[in-house]
Amino acid sequence: MNLLDLLFPKKCLECKRGGKYICKSCLDKVPVGGWYNSNYSIFRYKGVIRKAIISLKYKFAYDLSDELSLVIINKLKDINFPFKNIILVPIPLHVQRENWRGFNQLAIVGEKIAKKMKWKYYPNLLIKYKKTDPQVNLKGIDRRKNLSGVFVINPTHKLPLTNNLILFDDVYTTGSTINEAKKVLKDAGFSKIYSLTIAR
Description:
The protein has 200 residues and is an alpha/beta fold. β7, α7 (176-187) and β8 (193-199) form a beta-alpha-beta unit. It has a 6-stranded mixed beta sheet with strand order 1-2-8-7-3-4, with helices on both faces. The chain has a two-stranded antiparallel ribbon with strand order 5-6. The protein is 34% helix and 21% strand. It has one domain: 3-Layer(aba) Sandwich (Rossmann fold).
């Protein structure tokens, strides 16, 4: 046990039992997700998983990423996730938001998942800009009006178009963010594009 664990002991985010942020008892109560519109969600956005995503996203709980990643990896192995030759690409944050948080929570979790699952991992394939960013020419890029950002392909990345490219995000709600990223990738030549989210 390290000093931080002594000063700030881990407690389950749901039941407050000591030892872990995500205890097995509370995890077992969260319904599984499933496939929806070429997106696989591992869980439903409920209970301890919902609280873990919120804590990781808004409360800067960096060390929570280890437990959440392990939970995701175990579930992916349990369902025998049906794709091979996978390139995992996290949905990026705008650079200002990433600088404000100090990290991209999805990139951290995604890297851990890709390493354990032996997937290729490209955290910088997509770049997110705001439409007000003056240094970016957004002319001709199709985007949804309700989104504040836009995705573009990082010109320094060249990937094999035959691989299964899987976008990784925390929560699938309307699918607008993922669908916009998919469109950009399809325009770039990728044909096998799916998405994986922690919850829906």
